[in-house]
Design a protein that fits this description.
The chain is α/β, with parallel strands linked by helices. The chain has two domains: about 130 residues, translation initiation factor eif-2b, domain 1 (Four Helix Bundle (Hemerythrin (Met), subunit A)), CATH 1.20.120; about 230 residues, Rossmann fold. It has twelve helices and 18 strands. The strands form five sheets. A seven-stranded mixed β-sheet has the order 8-7-6-9-12-17-18, sandwiched between helices. Strands 13-10-11-16 form a four-stranded mixed β-sheet, with helices on one face. A three-stranded antiparallel β-sheet has the order 3-4-5, with helices on one face. The radius of gyration is 20 Å and the shape is globular.
């Protein structure tokens, strides 16, 4: 994606080996680039949500394992040190399966190499390869989802296609392109008239702060709405499709995404609005069938509910929203059952949110059903 005319990915490695990230907690009010140098830096970046979004968490973890390789070379027991770093990074966030996928993939690859002068270079190449695959997967998701938007535009005779999205499943949540936003960007670039309803996505406001900022940078028409507005818009035929991302999807098609996604799916079902989920295959948890029972739901600090950050007098300011002493609960995700999902948009194509549909695209990866 281009920011003020310059191309960026959400995480990148410079020539001398420094890993850089955009501190997303500061957007859209401040542009802060941070260097990650130690395993602890990577852990804190994921935990504190300096980086967020399932695919980007995966790439960050892959680079974290590269740095873990460098640190392990300074110890007496390389394999033990690497495994400890892998296990530690896995505790940073519980829901997004890309985190575990990336760490396991990097750990298995690194431990299979000879511990010699080339192992760090090999780990670096593996992390960069992981990122390249992520970027290509998102581009392919965009191309596969573009056809859906094109079909709606054709049915409407070229009128504006109104798309509702939730949270931020854009390039900031991936490495580039995004998942849910990838088809939107491609549609806009190809001259299809699109407009995006952007859920604010309380309590961290990733929609209002990040998705709106992304869309504005790309020139995509959009309107920020309160989270509870979507159902009203659907009732009045102002939404043509809902398009969201996923942090973990079961092999049966249940989808864990940012809290509030389930409510949008219910409203879409009641109003006959197609509800699509865009995700790379790294977000599919092949070990799970029942999302509601088996997907761990992260509970974050109640401070994210009781306080809000915003710009005041050109300074990022934190203010309290609730009475002192009132308790707050902060569930970060919810699970949308497969029956409410019209289809899954993946890098391999679009399929039904079901074992059969997913098997058609990913049969070799599903293992024993």
């Amino acid at each position: 994606m281009n920011i003020n005319g310059k191309h960026f990915t959400s995480i990148w490695m410079e020539e001398k080996g420094d890993v850089k990230i955009i501190d997303q907690r500061k957007l859209p009010f401040d542009w802060v680039i941070e260097t990650l140098s130690t395993v602890e830096d990577f852990y804190q970046a994921i935990r504190q949500m300096k980086v967020r979004g399932a695919p980007l968490i995966g790439t960050t973890a892959a680079f974290g394992m590269m740095v873990a390789t460098r640190e392990a070379l300074l110890t007496d027991d390389f394999a033990k040190s690497l495994k400890e770093a892998a296990n530690y990074l896995k505790t940073s966030r519980p829901t997004a399966v890309d985190l575990f996928y990336a760490i396991d993939r990097m750990e298995a690859y690194i431990l299979a190499q000879a511990v010699d002068n080339h192992i760090l270079a090999k780990a670096t190449t593996a992390a960069l390869t992981y990122q390249k695959e992520n970027i290509q997967n998102c581009k392919s998701i965009g191309e596969n989802g573009l056809e859906i938007i094109q079909n709606i535009a054709d049915e409407k005779g070229g009128e504006v296609v109104h798309i509702l999205t939730h949270c931020n499943a854009g390039w900031l949540a991936t490495d580039d392109y995004g998942t849910a936003t990838a088809p939107i960007y491609l549609a806009h670039d190809r001259g299809i008239r699109v407009h995006v309803w952007v859920d604010e996505t309380r309590p961290r406001n990733q929609g209002a702060r990040l998705t709106a900022w992304e869309l504005r940078q790309h020139g995509v028409p959009h309107t920020v709405i309160a989270d509870n507005t979507g159902g009203h818009l659907m009732q009045h035929h102002l939404v043509d499709m809902v398009l969201v991302g996923s942090d973990r999807t079961t092999r049966s098609g249940d989808v864990a995404n940012k809290i509030g996604t389930y409510l949008k799916a219910l409203a879409a079902k009641d109003n006959g609005v197609p509800f699509y989920v865009a995700l790379p295959s790294s977000t599919i948890d092949w070990t799970l069938d029942d999302g509601l029972a088996e997907i761990p739901i992260e509970e974050r600090s109640p401070d994210e509910v009781t306080f809000i950050d915003g710009l005041h007098d050109q300074a990022l300011t934190r203010v309290r929203l609730t009475p002192e002493g009132s308790l707050a609960a902060n569930y970060a995700f919810d699970v949308t059952p497969a029956r409410l999902v019209t289809g899954l948009i993946t890098e391999k194509g679009v399929c039904k949110a079901s074992k059969e549909g997913i098997s058609r695209l990913f049969g070799d990866e599903m293992g024993e059903m």
